[in-house]
Amino acid sequence: MEYRAIKMSPQDNVAITVAAIPKGATVNIPGYGKVVTNQEVPNGHKIALVPIPRGLDVIRYGETICSAKEDINAGDWVHLHNTISTF
What is the pLDDT of residues 2-43, one digit of tens each? Predict the structure, then answer.
């Protein structure tokens, strides 16, 4: 089965899943490439495309939406457990 996610803007360091994706799956991001999931990622949630070190911005739609409260690896599920609001 092919899994996909969408990178909304060239500046983004996360992509949005279009279906639930199991741990260890290879995800195709059109216009970007592929990433392997480190955890299960729910439908409509974010997956890190690159490592995002603690304290750095998580960027979606070309805008900062939060920051990493811990180191996030490429392929990690990006959600409330590993981010903090910057607003």
Answer: 899 999 999 999 999 999 999 999 999 999 999 999 999 999
| Cα distances (angstroms) measured from residue 85 to each of 34, 41, 45, 70 | 28, 20, 16, 13
* DSSP secondary structure, 16-78, as one string: EESS-B-TT-EEEETTTEEEE-SS-B-TT-EEESS-B-TTSEEEETTEEEEEESS-B-TT-EE
Tell me the three state secondary structure of residue 9.
coil
Pairing state between β 3-6 and 57-60: unpaired
Nearest to 48 by CA among 62, 58, 61, 33: 58
pTM to 2 decimal places:
0.94
Domain boundaries, the chain: 3-84
Specify the 3-state DSSP secondary structure of 14: strand
| Fold of domain 3-84 | 2.30.130
